[in-house]
Every structure is written in C-alpha cells, then in structure tokens.
Specification:
heterodimer; A: alpha+beta; Alpha-Beta Plaits; 8-stranded antiparallel β-sheet; 5-stranded antiparallel β-sheet; 17 helices; globular; B: 430 residues; alpha+beta; 14 helices
C-alpha cells in the first residue's frame, strides 16, 4: 500500500478524498458525482449485474487517465475502465466505492500508416470506424465482434475480442503490436510499437485479454489487414444440426479455412425470421453461413468445393450471395440472432463456451437433452469453425423459478464444454459473471500463478478487482509456494534483485 | 555445489536420470555441475523443488540449438534437460490442434501432423531443425520464420502452456481449443522468455492444413529497389504466405523470394502475377537460403575461442516496420562502409530479420548501434544481440532500449523471486 495514506484504504473516506483530488485536478465537468448521472453507468452489456460507481471520470487523454489512476492508487481506491460498455460478462461492472474511468471520449484515430499497415488509435475508437477509415485505402481492422458498430477498440483489447472471422484472421491479440498503458500505480508506459516482436517479455500477450486487471490502455497500435480481392458468401440449409456439423467437418478436413463458418439451429432461425425477415429456407433444421475470401482464383476453386461438400452432407438448398446486398441479407439473420431471440422469449441468457469443434454434434445433443430435462428452450448460434458456442437460454423471468432453471442450464452447458476439453469463454470474457467458474477450468496453482502476474502489475489489487479471479490474492504472500525452499534466502536474493 | 544424490532421490518416482555435468554441458562458457533429465512434468517439478531447496541455479535445455542465444547466465549449477519429455500428447486432427511435451523435437512433431496433411507453421531455421530443436526451445526463443507474414509468429500459434516454476509449482494457462479467453494468456508471456520465468513442460498449438501446392518467385536487384518491390507484394491482394529478403554481407544487391501456397492452378496464377509485380521468375523450389539464419552456419560465432581484436560473427535479431525494412537494409550497407564490418541481413519483409555482423568487437558494437539508428524510435524497430562472443558483449548493449522493463522485472520477481532460473540471460539482467 502507498505510504502516504492518511485513512483506511478503499473506504468511503478514501473515495471522498479521491473525488476531491479529481475535481481539483480535472475540474467538475469531467468528474461526475451526481448519483442520477452516475447511474447511467451502472452496468455494461450484461445488465443482470448493476452497481452504481462511486465516481465517474470522463477521460479526455492519457494524462487524465494517469491522474485518475494515481489518485486511486494514493488512497487504495479501486478503479474500473469502461469503453462503450457493450461487454457481455460484466467486465466493466463498476465498483460502488471506486472510480469508473470512461474512455469513450478518447476516440481519435491518431495515425493511419497505410504503407506500414498499422494504425494508432485512442481506446475509445469504435471498431468499425477504423475499418471505415482504412477501407478506402484497401485495408480493414480484422477483429469483428458482432458489436463492432458500437464496441471500442480499447474494449476489444481488454477482452481479446474475436468475431465471426477470427477462424482465419485471429483475435485482437494477433492484431496488436503496441500499447500505451497507465499502470495501476499511475505510471505511463509504452509497450511495443509499430514493429513486431519488441524485445523482452511479451507483455502485449499478457495485457490483451486481461480484462482491465493490469491497468488502463490509453492507445493501441494495431495491424491493418489488406482487403481480400474477393469475398463469396453462401447460405446452406440442412434438415438437421448433425448434417450441418458434418458439412463443417468436411470443409475443415478438405483443408479449407473459410473466413467464417457460422451455424444456427431451428429456434435461432425462427427468432431471426421474426425479427429481421431474413427469409432463410423454410423447413431448415440448421443453416450454415460460409464465407470465403482471398485471391479470386483460389476463392473460386474453394467455393465450388464448399458447395459440393455441403450438398454431399445433405444440404437441401444452397444460396449464393450474388452481390453485397445479398451478402448483407445472409449476414443480417446471423448478426441479429442474439437480439432477435427477444422476439420469441421475454428473457434469455447468452452463453459463451468453447468445445473442440469435432465434439460439436455430441455436445449439441447433450445441450438439447439438458434443456429438455429442465423444461428450458435453448437456441443455438455459433462459430462452427472454431467450436465457439453461443447457446441462448430462453426463459420468462415473471415465472417463478424460471431464472434459476435457465441459469442451471447455462451452467450445465459450461460443464459440457469443460468435459470435452474446451473453455468457459471463447470471446465474451470472464468478467464478473464467470469468475466463479474459473476454478472449474483451472487449478488453484494455475490461478495463483496468473495472479502472481497480476501482482507484478497491480500489487494493491485496485485495477478492476473482483473480475476474472474468484478470490483475490494478497501480493505479499505466496501461499503454498514454499515447500522445500529457503524463504529467507529467497527473499534475501529477491531484495537484491 | 549440487547434491546429486538428493537430486537423484527427487527423481525416484519419475524414473529420470541425474549425472555430473561435463565440459560439453557448459552454457556459453558457464560450467554447470549437474544435469538432470526428468521424464515427466512431475519429475521437472520435483527436480526444481530440490534444486531450489539446495540453493541451485537451474537452466532448462532442450536440444541446445540456441543455448548460446541471450546473454550468458551469471551462474549455472543444474542443467535441466527436457529431452526426456518427448511425447506427442495429442493430435486433434479434426480440430487442427496439437499438444506436445516440451522436449519433443519440432521435426518429429511436424512429421506426425504431416500424416494428416497438417503443419505447425514455425519455419525454424533448417540448421536448428536438423539439430533436434524442441518444442520448448522454439517457444522459449520466440522462433520466427518466413511464414509469420500471414500466419503470425509462434506466439500467435500457441494456445496454451504448462510451466513449472522455480519452486516446483505446476501451472497451466490457455487450453487446447483455438478460441479461448479464460484467464491470462501466460503462454505468450513464456514465449521468447528464454526460460527465465519457468520451465515449459507442455504446450498446445494451432495447426494449419498443409497446402498441396506452392510456388516461389525470386528476384534480385539494388537494395532500395528490392525492398520496395517486396513491399508491393506484401501490399497486394495475392495473399503471399511469405516474402523474404536476403542481403548478403558486402553486397549492394539483395534478393527477394515470395512463397505462394494454395491449390492447383490458382497458385500458378498468383505466382505469375507476383512475378510481374516483382520483375522476377517463378520456380518450384525455394532459394538455398530460405528460412536459414544469415551468415555461415559454421562460422566463428560463440562465447569461446575468439581472441580480442579478431573479427568474429555476432548474430542479432532486427525488427522494423514494413517501410523501415528498406532503411535497415541501407543502414547495413552504411555500417559496412563506416566500420569495416560485414552485415548479412535476412528475414521477412514483415519486419523480423536476422543479422550477422562480422567484425572486431568495437566495430561490431558501432555497427549494431548504427542499425538501431535506422529506426526513428525503438517502437519502430529494434536490434537485439542473440549470440556473441564475450568481447562483443562487453563492447555493446545487447538488448537496446526495452519498453516496459520495470514491469518485466516485476513479473520476474513474482514468478522467480529467488532468481533460480537462468539469471542474467535476459533483458535488463533478468
């Protein structure tokens, strides 16, 4: 803890001290203390969790962020960074006795270096804006989460966002070459840059996807990807999910890596039809959206293969997008699926889990059984190519016990993912929502080691506490780490170091 | 001194071996006293616990093909030979994933997955591959090869890793699925860490389908010209799998070679288009220098035998922006003219190259400084010395400026507070 503290760290008096300092240093415009206005920020995209932040800081630049973080660090007050607030795991859930640092007003694209295939952006820049700004030059920002028209790149960095096209192009972590960081101690550090492979430990690898627990990113240098010469999209309708799964396996086995390969089941199709009238083939038990991109000669050959493989697997209708409008219509059904489920159910939980892709048919049957035995409907929308499931668990919150049943099914789906060697989250993050599930995926030693890294960045545990890890770890201690060692000698050397 | 009996006792369950170290076990001139070769992750944990209890300093070794990369360790008592952990744990062909123990040679892994027409796209230098370079070694040295242009470096391919810390803690992160954001991605932190944070015992990687057909396009020309044309190919929509540049020492010319991968006639069409863009010719086979480190593989590089003042070879890694590669090439020629050294450069147009500088220690130090100056700032390009004689190391700053060094030191303090693992081998004396 900082030495200059005159009161209990993290308590109400400490928050008052932080507020006073922030108002003095940043002015009242940027520091929101009014409770009604603070309430605007009480949740992110996961509205089931709500906490009114103790104070809200509207950062205009990295200096503001450092000022806010330093004030928090001085008084042991927690802080949480928030971008567009579209996250689905409660990663930007505020702290009642802490500061919420809002990054969305830092939204300048600082530099587009077309020749160098890099852009330097403020964290509040909207994902799709970067693509819009660079596509006239023939480039785009590859990570494309479904929320890309509203989510921020700072949020993408925090969550290591993926999207439909990450099967071929990778996740945010594969597209970040540099970050400017305000450490939880309030120090401004430049990590990496435009050149790849900065010397030393791969701090970018640790930072991207750390969900705001290692500090606040104030600028990102990202790769720009060349727009493909050709994009071709098809919609294939199948009688069953098994058939669609078999088609997916056949495509992958043929050595084709589609830019995207997405699957929806009958219930998800029904919802999408109700919401956006995407006019998917009638009677489909499942649809696949397959997109291929790349040089024209290659895409042409692969596309024929994909059509053939879909038909061989039992597809009764294959529609090929003739132009951008038709492509947009095919994607409209898929991209609207989450929200569309609201048309067929008053409430729903969006689950996010991963399985090895080959386990898909089995796991989908197990999910169906899980839902049936609990009397809960589950709609399935997912990235079939990489086994990232997004089951939508439907319920009516006004019916007694319905929430609990839905949550039990959602939890059961994660168990299935883990049983098959997968993950509890493929792209939505752990956040506040899944911290409790982490011990099901990782041992105490695994989590303790991750938290040791956290301690290196945030010894006082004030950067987005309560997220990712189920139980905080005191950084001074190394529980269970001293079998057979000489603690005195060890700490002696450590001090010399 | 290591108590061999107690180390051996620690490996009783594991069935691994412990022996006295010989002269051949020295690391960049630093002599060790014992070598332990466990056969399992539990064995590695037992050895490290015992070694730490004895106050020993341990250095992990795979095949040893890059053991003299990084600074020489301050001290080594125990060599932890990982080659006993050589199982291919799992190849999920349908999932394009492989899980392997750290001591498995990359060549053996490649052979196994090749049976399913898949590959791990690390593109190690042939000399390392032939030397038995292991999965753990490739990961720990952050290996970089031609096809990183499109598929990324090894840090982009690793999905998860299990590491044993100095105190014997066994910790895993990531997983064996391509998409996964649960917890910190410690596998990336361990990549290129030269074994200073822990001993990697197992890792999972993403595989790619091996493309059935390929073509190379090669061209030669003046440095600036070649760099510009290489950039044109990178900026094209031909989706090249690799664009490599080779500038031999003392040459005003450089060669560029482009790799196109795919299926059937489409590859030929793209190769023809690339040949036109480059002003080059299409060929079936790569140039002889493809993926290899520059300079003479059997050259007089290394920690021993180089008398002061005599020209020796120094291996360095140079990074640059796409546009900065041209400046790096120009700086190599300038450095030769100014300091009387030879500077061979080779690597991807994406901006990760290897350099071999041949010269006296003082001239080498000047040349490395000059190459660093090619980038407007360390964020636009760096030069780090991988392999050098003691005299050369004494004459220069091997790592150059390192952004975030304090954070790196803090990470080291957390994971290896006693500095038991390869102390001194990494940036900032870590």
């Amino acid at each position: 803890m900082p030495a200059s503290m005159s009161m209990t760290p993290g308590g109400p008096a400490a928050l008052d001290a932080v507020i006073a300092e922030l108002v003095a240093e940043l002015g009242g415009e940027q520091v929101i203390t009014d409770r009604q206005r603070r309430r605007t920020y009480e949740c992110d995209g996961l509205a089931a969790y709500r906490v009114v932040p103790g104070v809200v800081v509207l950062a205009q630049d990295a200096g503001d962020v450092a000022t806010a973080v330093r004030a928090c660090a001085r008084h042991g007050v927690p802080f949480v960074a928030r971008g567009s607030g579209t996250g689905l795991s409660g990663g930007a859930l505020p702290h009642a006795a802490g500061a919420l640092v809002v990054m969305s007003q830092m939204r300048a694209i600082r530099e587009v270096d077309v020749e160098g295939q890099r852009a330097v952006v403020d964290p509040g820049v909207i994902n799709l804006q970067l693509t819009a700004a660079t596509s006239p030059d023939g480039y785009y920002f590859a990570p494309d989460p479904s929320s890309q028209s509203v989510c921020s790149i700072g949020g993408n960095v925090a969550e290591n966002s993926g999207g439909a096209h990450c099967l071929k192009y990778g996740f945010t972590t594969n597209h970040v070459t540099g970050l400017d960081l305000v450490t939880p101690g309030g120090e401004q550090v430049e990590i990496g840059g435009k050149a790849p492979d900065a010397p030393g430990y791969d701090l970018l690898g640790a930072l991207v996807g750390s969900e705001g627990t290692l500090g606040i990113v104030t600028a990102a240098t990202v790769r720009l990807t060349r727009l493909p010469q050709e994009v071709r999209t098809l919609l294939a309708a199948f009688r069953s999910m098994d058939d669609a799964g078999a088609a997916t396996s056949a495509i992958i086995a043929a050595g084709v890596i589609p830019a995207a390969i997405e699957m929806m089941d009958a219930l998800a199709i029904e919802a999408a039809e109700a919401a956006v009238h995407c006019n998917y083939p009638a009677g489909a038990g499942a649809v696949l959206v397959v997109e291929l991109d790349g040089p024209s000669p290659d895409v042409a050959g692969e596309f024929d293969d994909v059509v053939r493989l879909c038909e061989a697997a039992g597809s009764f209708e294959v529609r090929v997008a003739a132009d951008d409008d038709e492509r947009a219509l095919i994607w409209k059904g898929r991209k609207s699926a989450f929200a569309a489920v609201g048309r067929i159910s008053p409430d729903y939980i969006v689950q996010d889990g991963v399985i090895p892709r080959t386990a898909l048919p089995l796991v989908l049957r197990q999910i169906a059984e899980l839902g049936e035995s609990a009397g809960v409907r589950v709609a399935n929308v997912f990235h079939a190519g990489d086994g990232n499931l997004h089951p939508l668990v439907l319920f009516d919150g006004s019916v007694e016990g319905a929430v609990d049943r839905a949550e039990a099914v959602a939890g059961g789906i994660l168990d299935l993912c883990l049983e098959h060697g997968g993950s509890i989250t493929g792209e939505h993050g752990v956040g506040a929502d899944k911290a409790k599930h982490m011990p099901r995926m990782f041992t105490a030693d695994d989590l303790d080691t991750m938290q040791a890294v956290r301690c290196a960045f945030d010894p006082d545990g004030i950067s987005n506490p309560g997220k990712v890890f189920p139980t905080p770890r005191l950084c001074g201690e190394r529980p269970g780490r001293h079998q057979g060692a000489h603690p005195l000698a060890e700490s002696g050397v450590a001090e010399v170091f | 001194m290591a108590d061999l009996q107690r180390l051996d006792d620690a490996l009783e369950q594991d069935g691994g071996e412990v022996r006295e170290a010989g002269p051949g076990d020295a690391v960049d001139g630093v002599r060790a006293t014992a070598v332990a070769r466990p056969a399992s992750a539990d064995g590695v944990a037992a050895v490290l616990r015992e070694a730490t209890a004895q106050g020993l300093v341990t250095l992990a070794r795979g095949a040893g093909t890059a053991l003299d990369w990084g600074a020489p360790p301050e001290r080594v008592d125990l060599i932890l030979d990982t080659t006993g952990l050589d199982r291919l744990v799992e190849h999920g062909a349908g999932d394009l994933v492989v899980v392997a123990e750290a001591g498995l040679p990359v060549a053996a892994l490649s052979k196994s997955v090749r049976a399913a027409a898949q590959e791990l796209v690390v593109d190690l230098p042939p000399e390392r591959l032939a030397g038995g370079s292991t999965v753990g070694g490739a990961l720990s040295t952050g290996a970089s090869g031609p096809r990183r242009l499109q598929r990324g470096g090894i840090r982009d391919l690793v999905l998860g890793a299990t590491v044993v810390l100095a105190d014997g803690t066994i910790a895993s992160s990531g997983g064996k699925v391509v998409k996964n954001v649960a917890g910190y991605d410690l596998a990336k932190l361990l990549t290129g860490a030269y074994g200073t944070l822990g001993v990697v015992v197992r890792a999972a990687f993403r595989l790619h389908p091996a493309r059935p057909d390929r073509a190379f396009v090669v061209a030669t020309g003046p440095l600036a010209d070649v760099a510009a044309r290489a950039r044109d190919v990178v900026a094209s929509q031909l989706a090249p799998a690799a664009v490599e540049i080779d500038r031999p020492a003392g040459s005003d010319d450089a060669a560029v070679a482009v790799l196109l991968e795919g299926t059937g006639a489409a590859v030929g069409q793209r190769a023809a288009a690339a040949a036109e863009l480059l002003g080059g010719r299409v060929q079936d086979e790569p140039p002889a220098w493809w993926a290899a480190l520059p300079g003479d593989p059997a050259g007089s590089v290394g920690g021993s035998g180089s008398a002061g003042g005599q020209p020796v070879e120094t291996l360095a890694k140079a990074t640059a922006t796409l546009t900065g590669v041209a400046d790096l090439l120009a700086a190599a020629r300038d450095a030769e003219q100014r300091y009387g050294v030879g500077v061979a450069l080779r690597g991807t147009a994406a901006g990760v190259l290897h350099a071999v500088v041949t010269g006296t220690p003082e001239a080498t130090a000047s040349a490395v400084g000059h190459l660093r100056g090619a980038a407007p700032s360390p964020r636009d390009g760096t030069v780090t010395v991988l392999r050098a004689s003691r005299e050369v190391r004494a004459a220069l700053d091997a790592w150059g400026p390192v952004g975030g060094l304090d954070l790196m030191r803090a990470v080291k303090r957390q994971l290896d507070p006693g500095r038991r693992l390869a102390p001194g081998r990494f940036v900032g004396g870590i």
